[in-house]
Specification:
Layout: H1 2-25, E1 38-43, E2 46-51, H2 54-76, E3 81-86, H3 124-135, E4 144-147, H4 154-168, E5 174-178, H5 179-192, H6 195-203, E6 207-211, H7 220-235, E7 239-244, H8 256-262, E8 266-269, H9 275-288, H10 295-304, H11 309-326, H12 332-346, H13 352-363, H14 367-371, H15 377-393, H16 398-404, H17 410-426, H18 428-446
Parallel strand pairs: 2-3, 4-7, 4-8, 5-6, 6-7
Antiparallel strand pairs: 1-2
The structure holds adenosine-5'-diphosphate and magnesium ion.
Length: 447
Amino acid sequence: MKERVLAARDLAAIFAEVIDRVRALDPANARRWFDQLTPLHLDGGSLGVGCPDQAQLQFLQDRCKEAFTRAAQRVTGHLVVVEFQLTSPGPSKGTVAAVTQSTAGPRLHPDYTFENFVVGPSNRLAHASCVAVSQSLGDTYNPLFLYGSSGLGKTHLLHAVCHQVLGEGSGEVIELLSCEEFVNRFIHAIEEGAVAGFQSQFRGADLLVIDDVQFLSEREHSQEEFFHTFNALYNNGKQIILSSDSPPAEIPAVEARLVSRFNWGLVARIDPPSFETRVAILKKKADLRGVELADEVAEYVARHVQANIRELEGTLTTIYAMAMTERQPISLALAQRALEGQIKLASKTVTITDIVDVVTWHFNVRLADLQSKRRSQSITEPRQICMYLARSLTKHSLEEIGGHLGGRDHTTVMHACTKIAEAAGADPKMKALLDALTRQITQASQS
Ligand code: ADP
Ligand code: MG
């Protein structure tokens, strides 16, 4: 008996050390709620880790497996693998029974809840309408259409609605997906001769949430399908929520009958956040990571990073990572050092040519390749990186950037920017590459 108690204590101590290491190894993905994870067992080459929440489980599996495994191997000195499991969320933390995963449901980001959303003048209407819709599906605003530039919280709000509806547990069928995924699945269904199944899946939803509908631009066949899905749901009083980077009428090459339907319910715009909102968001994001952020640091960062919230969060991650590696508290001086590069950058004029020069040299491709129609990974990635860097380092419009890179339209550039930003958020290697390229580009533009 005594031995077993000791073993459980050992396991808890080992696990606490693993969590500490994970935080140091991967600050971008470290969260305060890691403290609530429970070690289930350590045997047969595996460390079982219990997590009570489906969205958290997904996050751990998608983004944290490598860091946990590396940390566990260092702490135990054995080649263990970490396995995450869903546990029943009982009140007694120690006695977790592993439950089998039921239907997968929508893939939700665990951070993207209403609780974690900071409301300010820039997003008040969008937030309030999402809350209203989540409380009474199909009855208030249908469809609800959110729009705003990239990184201002559209996806966050869409996920928050789904979290809320799921949390109520009344069994509503939710379909949440990006428009790109909708289109791809539709094409796949056609190829497989499974269009009927595709249709019944989406037309059977109580809540259909489609993110980034600007992706429908110029895709006539998918627009047609989307139109019928929309009608079927709408006529049955089912809720539809859509997001886009521009208002319905300004999405290029979308049929008028769809544009008119997008306007049927409520169209809510999200603007860039004010200084006060940026400060509050930084504090919220720091809190999610279990980090104390002094007012002066939050205000300093909010003053210097204004473009969008994704960037604000990226800066926080850089500061946090620096504090972790240097084993120092987050001070104003440290934040200033972290931002130095970025601030200098803002005061220089970088041209698209500077960017293309550095990126083509790094990837050993030619400008003509980037401008061509080729879609192999070896060309697509540098092309998308060019677009992303042009967007963040120059003041050129999406159209201008697309024009420079083979006459691509603005949705393609937008998509590339989102994709690279997300990759940088998920993959430290991509983040490091972008930082290195940025440094080279700004140096090049000076000389
Ligand atoms: P969009 O879909 O509009 O491009 P996202 O929803 O992906 O933007 O938001 C980018 C990041 O900014 C996310 O991490 C999100 O949590 C955060 N964010 C945006 N708005 C807010 C807000 N009001 N409060 C807290 N976090 C926010
Ligand atoms: Mg989004």
